[in-house]
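Question: Send over one sample?
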Amino acid sequence: MSRSKKNIEPVFTDWTFGGEKFYFMGRGFDIDAAKRILSAKPRAIGTLNPEDLRPLVIPRGVKFAVGVEIDYAKIGAGIEIARVPLIVGMVKGNSGKAFPLLLDGWHRVAAALEQGVDSLPCVALSARETKQIEI
């Protein structure tokens, strides 16, 4: 009799909590609630290419633009970009279809773009979990 081995992939469980919220295009998300879900139900770590998000990151020195505003002083002070996974949620749009949206990690993405890093770790919430953290 042979036993099949369960595939064990790396997971991340060392979340820190600081009352974080993320607001984008009129919607808000409770990042601490997302981290509580991910702590209770760890999942495999995937990867995300920061270049895919470049059009949404407001570049250094640009004052008025549509996109995610980055505090470049945080990046200049040095941030650890690859230890903690980015958090991606599945958000339902006006059409009713869900699409991925980066909820936590925009400063790490901006730092990765500046440093030429082509892959960051990420974890994803389901559409139901994302709805639970919406504020």
